[in-house]
Specification:
The protein is mostly helical. About 60% of the residues lie in helices and about 0% in strands.
Length: about 425
């Protein structure tokens, strides 16, 4: 449910939207509930889970012992975990027989609340629960595959999470710490489950924790990003771009003097460095080696960081160094043609005559840099002379896909 996530954007709602969204908004049909078919949907009346669901069953209890709740109406819901008795054991999570979306959501909230109440011992259990019943849940999807159904539960989830702010933040920290120190733990986790934390919860951290704790999160993020690419389990590996963006959001508040000192020492790198550079005056920027500072940003291909470079006073020597880093990244497949176009724009090369030297350097390297730069011509549109396009086709060995891109340019008026 990407649209819902974006709509909830830069607020705590983003975490709730992700909790709902990854499984409930994948599209795709499934049976609709009688409540919706009749045009009757009863939104939850208060934030957290409806805990009045009858007897709690121990693990392994026969399914026949689970009461039929298919026609039940959720009762008032509680604002804290006090309703869960100390040491209470939840029955195995199930939506079997449930036809009311309110009941389905109440059961989900109740189970999440119980796992949060377990403290650190429940962190991995909660992640596994989200992996099975949220990120990959056909049972939930049949209730909430439409945005107009899911949006009714955003505010209840926001209040649910805020009321449990401490335990929720502890879970978020456990996830980032595990990705940094024991990433193999998440080898079998769905990448979408980790996105709940790297793209959802990460956004709200600066307003939820103090600077000391935020520094810990920055340490986890740097440890993950400093790991050689390709060496992490795939679900964690796929979070690199999101963690880069999170690290920029988590940048410390620095005085200009502190920022200059940390940039010169190399303490600030990547997205953090870009954020710090943007706070400095032209006079303060003059004493910095911008090419060296920005080289890791360009090598990483983070388009948000590349876009942020556009206001920096880069010198020709800086651009020469960064061009080499961009082409090296193209050779390894880290950047694509649209990233090249973004980079050229960020380095103030908006028109073809200015872009040509970089493109020719990439073409001359052959292999993947040549493919990437040739396809970038297709994104320049009519700015590129057709005679030049024909020259590229004649002089360079390119894949069929790239040839089709260039031939399409020749057919355009």
């Amino acid at each position: 449910m990407r649209g819902l996530l974006i709509a909830c954007g830069w607020a705590v709602t983003v975490a709730a939207a992700f909790l709902l969204g990854e499984s409930m908004g994948r599209g795709g049909g499934g049976a609709s509930s009688p409540a919706r078919d009749e045009g009757v949907v009863r939104p939850l009346r208060a934030p957290p889970a409806a805990l009045d669901e009858g007897p709690v069953l121990a693990p392994g209890a026969p399914r026949s012992a689970i009461p039929d709740r298919s026609r039940e109406t959720p009762g008032p819901v509680a604002g804290s975990d006090a309703d869960l008795a100390t040491g209470e054991t939840l029955e195995p999570f199930t939506l079997e027989g449930v036809t009311d979306p309110d009941v389905a959501m109440a059961r989900l909230m109740r189970h999440v609340a119980a796992l949060l109440a377990k403290g650190e011992d429940g962190h991995l259990d909660l992640l596994l629960f989200l992996d099975e019943h949220v990120a990959n849940s056909e049972a939930l999807e049949r209730f909430f595959h439409r945005e107009e159904d899911a949006v009714r539960y955003i505010v209840p989830w926001v209040e649910f999470l805020v009321n449990r702010k401490g335990p929720v933040l502890d879970v978020v920290e456990s996830v980032f710490e595990t990705m940094a120190e024991r990433p193999e733990t998440f080898a079998e986790i769905d990448k979408d489950t980790l996105e709940i934390f790297t793209e959802g919860a990460a956004v709200v951290l600066p307003g939820a924790v103090d600077e000391e704790r935020l520094a810990k999160f920055r340490g986890y993020a740097r440890a993950i990003l400093d790991t050689p690419e390709g060496s992490l389990p795939e679900p964690v590996e796929k979070q690199r771009r999101r963690i880069q963006r999170a690290l920029a959001l988590w940048s410390p508040r620095l005085t200009p003097e502190d920022a200059v000192a940390r940039l010169k020492s190399g303490e600030l790198k990547g997205p953090e460095a870009v954020q710090a550079l943007r706070q400095l005056s032209p006079e303060q920027l003059q004493g910095l080696d911008l090419g060296t500072i920005l080289a890791p940003v360009v090598a990483g291909g983070d388009y948000r960081a590349l876009q942020a470079m556009r206001d920096l006073p880069l010198q020709p020597r800086d651009v020469d160094l960064l061009d080499g880093k961009m082409l090296e990244a193209a050779a390894t497949g880290k950047v694509r043609d649209w990233t090249v176009v973004q980079y050229l724009s960020s380095t103030k090369r908006h028109r073809w005559p200015q872009q040509q030297p970089f493109i020719e350097e990439g073409l001359g390297r052959g292999g993947q840099p040549a493919e990437t730069c040739a396809r970038a011509l297709g994104r320049f549109g009519g700015h590129v002379p057709k005679d030049y396009v024909r020259w590229v086709l004649e002089r360079h060995e390119l894949s069929e896909k790239t040839v089709r891109v260039l031939e399409r340019l020749l057919r355009e008026d």
